[in-house]
Amino acid sequence: MLYTLVAAVAAVLLTALLTRFVRVLALRTGLLDRPGARKAHSRPTPHLGGVAVAAGTLAVSCTGYAPLGPGTERLLWAASALALLGLVDDLRPLGARIRLVVETVAAFVVVYDTELTPLAAACALVWIVFVTNAFNLLDNSDGAMGTVGVVTALGLALCAAAEGRSGLALVLTVLAASLGGFLGHNWHPAKIFLGDCGSLFTGFLLASAAVTVHTGHETLPTALGLLTLTVVVTADTALVVVSRRRAGRPLLMGGTDHTAHRLRRVGFTVPGAAVVLGAVAFAGTLTTFLMHRGVAGPSAATPLLLAVIGGLWALLKVPVYGAQARLGGPATRTAAAGGARTPARTSARPVPTGALRTATAGRGRPVGGPRTVAAAAARPADGPRTLALRTSTTRTRPVPGTRASGTPAAGTFLPPGGGRTAAAPSGAQTSASTSGGRTPGVPSSGRAPGVPSSGRTSSTPAAGRPVAPPRGPKSPTPTGRTRRGLAALTRTVLAARRAQPGAHPTTADLARG
């Protein structure tokens, strides 16, 4: 008993160290399991963790301090052959026929020396091959395979110890300890996967040990005991086979349709799914141990099997195929006509306002959009040139010729000689929209109303038109500043016109003025 505990501790530590070493080696050499459409993981992960599990189990079990017996040694040799097969499959995938041939030969080596009838031996051989591949299929989620393997190995170790097979009990205990050391690296988020090397090695060792332990017992309790012992892997394989047959998918094609994946889709986390599978495995192992010891009869397996069948029926209704059943991605819908996939949600992409272009109108100026400066210049017959700004609503916003104080506004052109011009009749004042762009309040002569020839404000109406009273002292006419402002504004207008398609020739006229 003490040696078994020491061996278990040594197996945990050795496997943990070997797993770390194998992970670093796999990362440096690029031996990674790449993500794919039929895989649940989202990043490249090493998948040679089974090398550490097999090496740790064999190294601790074959130390020679405890006798294993000829049957257990033969079992270890056959399991080593399966580990080597899995390693080759991890490095370079093999065909299903080669794997089945090697697995059948290894199972025959285990069954050959047992006291079983030919029919029972054939059934045992088929069952060992089936369970070996079922454990391989269970290695599809972080921590799932390791948790179920630890629980099953410990239960079988108790059964072997009760049968007086101390060597087999030691090997199973060391296997459980090695899987426990590996789980530290395989728990979600997994840093390394078990791979075919570890899953085939573990599955074959557990299946062969179960057949060895139950040899010599009654047929019905033995069959039910083997079924409840491997209830998790058996149910998972049956679920996948039935689901793929109903969907018309190939049985050997991988996918995210296993029990752990379906549990995730109904709300469980990745560690939660592993714990659920471990709990069901514990219930099956406990039932097997009670029936093996004679404490419970075959009817004790009925509640567990009925519960598992009900769970399988419920999990079959979980969608696992198609666009709506993808793990880790938004659901998509398939159009009724044509079958084109479209996202479940569509969002309109905003278009910048400045990028909008509308049809041209009139002289080719853009209509609508942001406010733009359009050179709308008009040259009166005997007056100054004025400038109008065209906005997005195509309305003309004139620039006033004078301020309230009588001072000419910026942008108003005054002829040479200053602002001293003669009075003009009121009939010459028109709107910019009807008189070629003239500014309201500026007569055709270019003089503000009420400004006499001397430049001072007069209270006498011009041509019978009332003039507002003066609102301040005399203000000199800023002729030079006005010209500089008009020149700068002209350059701005010309630049804006060049940037727009279909510029009107009046821009050249404005530049000449």
UniProtKB/TrEMBL annotation:
<feature type="transmembrane region" description="Helical">
    <location>
        <begin position="116"/>
        <end position="137"/>
    </location>
</feature>
<feature type="compositionally biased region" description="Pro residues">
    <location>
        <begin position="467"/>
        <end position="476"/>
    </location>
</feature>
<keyword id="KW-1003">Cell membrane</keyword>
<feature type="transmembrane region" description="Helical">
    <location>
        <begin position="295"/>
        <end position="316"/>
    </location>
</feature>
<feature type="transmembrane region" description="Helical">
    <location>
        <begin position="50"/>
        <end position="68"/>
    </location>
</feature>
<dbReference type="InterPro" id="IPR000715">
    <property type="entry name" value="Glycosyl_transferase_4"/>
</dbReference>
<feature type="region of interest" description="Disordered">
    <location>
        <begin position="333"/>
        <end position="486"/>
    </location>
</feature>
<feature type="transmembrane region" description="Helical">
    <location>
        <begin position="192"/>
        <end position="211"/>
    </location>
</feature>
<feature type="transmembrane region" description="Helical">
    <location>
        <begin position="168"/>
        <end position="185"/>
    </location>
</feature>
<keyword id="KW-0472">Membrane</keyword>
<feature type="transmembrane region" description="Helical">
    <location>
        <begin position="223"/>
        <end position="242"/>
    </location>
</feature>
<dbReference type="GO" id="GO:0016740">
    <property type="term" value="F:transferase activity"/>
</dbReference>
<feature type="compositionally biased region" description="Low complexity">
    <location>
        <begin position="333"/>
        <end position="397"/>
    </location>
</feature>
<keyword id="KW-0808">Transferase</keyword>
<feature type="compositionally biased region" description="Low complexity">
    <location>
        <begin position="421"/>
        <end position="437"/>
    </location>
</feature>
<feature type="transmembrane region" description="Helical">
    <location>
        <begin position="263"/>
        <end position="283"/>
    </location>
</feature>
<dbReference type="Pfam" id="PF00953">
    <property type="entry name" value="Glycos_transf_4"/>
</dbReference>
<keyword id="KW-1133">Transmembrane helix</keyword>
<protein>
    <submittedName>
        <fullName>Undecaprenyl/decaprenyl-phosphate alpha-N-acetylglucosaminyl 1-phosphate transferase</fullName>
    </submittedName>
</protein>
<feature type="transmembrane region" description="Helical">
    <location>
        <begin position="144"/>
        <end position="162"/>
    </location>
</feature>
<keyword id="KW-0812">Transmembrane</keyword>
